[in-house]
Amino acid sequence: MALAAARSGLRSLAARAAPARRRMSSSVHDDAYETAKWEKITYAGIVTCTLLAAYNLSKGHPHFDEPPAYPYLHIRNKEFPWGPDGLFENKDHH
After folding, report:
1. What is the pTM of this model?
2. Distance, CA of 48 to chain centre
3. Model pLDDT for residues 10-53, shown as the tens digit of each residue
4. 46: left (phi > 0), else alpha (psi -120 to 50), else beta?
5. Vertex 17 angle, CA 12 and 21, to 5°
6. 86 and 80 in contact (C-beta within 8 Å)?
7. Opening angle at CA 33, ends 30 and 36, nearest 5
8. Can you give the C-alpha Rg of the chain in angstroms?
Protein backbone atom coordinates (compact mmCIF):
# COMPACT_ATOMS: atom_id res chain seq x y z
CA MET A 1 0.00 0.00 0.00
CA ALA A 2 2.81 2.38 0.86
CA LEU A 3 4.50 1.58 -2.44
CA ALA A 4 1.39 2.60 -4.37
CA ALA A 5 1.17 5.88 -2.45
CA ALA A 6 4.83 6.59 -3.16
CA ARG A 7 4.32 5.93 -6.87
CA SER A 8 1.28 8.21 -6.90
CA GLY A 9 3.25 10.95 -5.19
CA LEU A 10 6.13 10.62 -7.63
CA ARG A 11 3.74 10.77 -10.60
CA SER A 12 2.05 13.94 -9.35
CA LEU A 13 5.47 15.52 -8.66
CA ALA A 14 6.67 14.60 -12.18
CA ALA A 15 3.49 15.97 -13.72
CA ARG A 16 4.00 19.34 -12.00
CA ALA A 17 7.67 19.52 -12.97
CA ALA A 18 7.00 18.83 -16.67
CA PRO A 19 6.09 21.76 -18.91
CA ALA A 20 2.36 22.13 -19.55
CA ARG A 21 2.64 22.10 -23.34
CA ARG A 22 5.56 21.69 -25.67
CA ARG A 23 5.47 23.98 -28.71
CA MET A 24 7.07 22.66 -31.86
CA SER A 25 7.18 25.94 -33.78
CA SER A 26 9.14 29.02 -32.88
CA SER A 27 6.22 31.41 -32.69
CA VAL A 28 2.56 31.88 -33.48
CA HIS A 29 3.47 34.34 -36.26
CA ASP A 30 5.28 31.59 -38.16
CA ASP A 31 2.22 29.34 -37.90
CA ALA A 32 -0.06 32.04 -39.30
CA TYR A 33 2.40 32.78 -42.10
CA GLU A 34 2.73 29.11 -43.05
CA THR A 35 -1.04 28.62 -42.96
CA ALA A 36 -1.61 31.62 -45.23
CA LYS A 37 1.15 30.48 -47.59
CA TRP A 38 -0.27 26.98 -48.01
CA GLU A 39 -3.79 28.33 -48.39
CA LYS A 40 -2.59 30.48 -51.32
CA ILE A 41 -0.71 27.51 -52.82
CA THR A 42 -3.85 25.37 -52.53
CA TYR A 43 -6.04 27.94 -54.27
CA ALA A 44 -3.43 28.40 -57.03
CA GLY A 45 -3.34 24.61 -57.51
CA ILE A 46 -7.12 24.41 -57.72
CA VAL A 47 -7.24 27.14 -60.35
CA THR A 48 -4.37 25.57 -62.33
CA CYS A 49 -5.94 22.09 -62.32
CA THR A 50 -9.35 23.49 -63.30
CA LEU A 51 -7.88 25.45 -66.21
CA LEU A 52 -5.84 22.47 -67.42
CA ALA A 53 -8.88 20.18 -67.22
CA ALA A 54 -11.03 22.68 -69.14
CA TYR A 55 -8.35 23.02 -71.82
CA ASN A 56 -7.88 19.26 -72.18
CA LEU A 57 -11.61 18.57 -72.30
CA SER A 58 -12.25 21.32 -74.86
CA LYS A 59 -9.85 19.77 -77.39
CA GLY A 60 -11.23 17.24 -79.80
CA HIS A 61 -10.07 13.66 -79.91
CA PRO A 62 -9.67 11.35 -82.91
CA HIS A 63 -12.29 8.75 -83.78
CA PHE A 64 -10.95 5.59 -85.34
CA ASP A 65 -12.54 3.10 -87.71
CA GLU A 66 -13.71 -0.31 -86.56
CA PRO A 67 -10.72 -2.37 -85.37
CA PRO A 68 -9.78 -5.44 -87.40
CA ALA A 69 -11.27 -8.77 -86.37
CA TYR A 70 -8.35 -10.39 -84.63
CA PRO A 71 -8.77 -14.15 -84.23
CA TYR A 72 -7.44 -14.20 -80.66
CA LEU A 73 -10.23 -11.97 -79.27
CA HIS A 74 -12.64 -14.94 -79.05
CA ILE A 75 -15.70 -12.82 -79.76
CA ARG A 76 -18.86 -14.72 -78.86
CA ASN A 77 -21.41 -14.43 -81.65
CA LYS A 78 -23.71 -17.12 -80.29
CA GLU A 79 -26.60 -16.00 -78.09
CA PHE A 80 -26.33 -16.55 -74.35
CA PRO A 81 -28.48 -19.35 -72.87
CA TRP A 82 -30.39 -16.78 -70.77
CA GLY A 83 -31.16 -14.43 -73.66
CA PRO A 84 -29.54 -11.56 -75.54
CA ASP A 85 -28.64 -9.51 -72.44
CA GLY A 86 -25.72 -10.25 -70.17
CA LEU A 87 -26.42 -11.41 -66.63
CA PHE A 88 -25.49 -8.08 -65.07
CA GLU A 89 -26.80 -5.67 -67.71
CA ASN A 90 -29.82 -3.44 -67.28
CA LYS A 91 -32.73 -5.25 -68.92
CA ASP A 92 -34.94 -2.15 -69.25
CA HIS A 93 -35.06 -1.21 -72.94
CA HIS A 94 -36.49 2.31 -72.82
Report:
1. 0.40
2. 18
3. 666 666 655 556 556 556 678 999 999 999 999 999 999 999 99
4. alpha
5. 105
6. yes
7. 150
8. 34
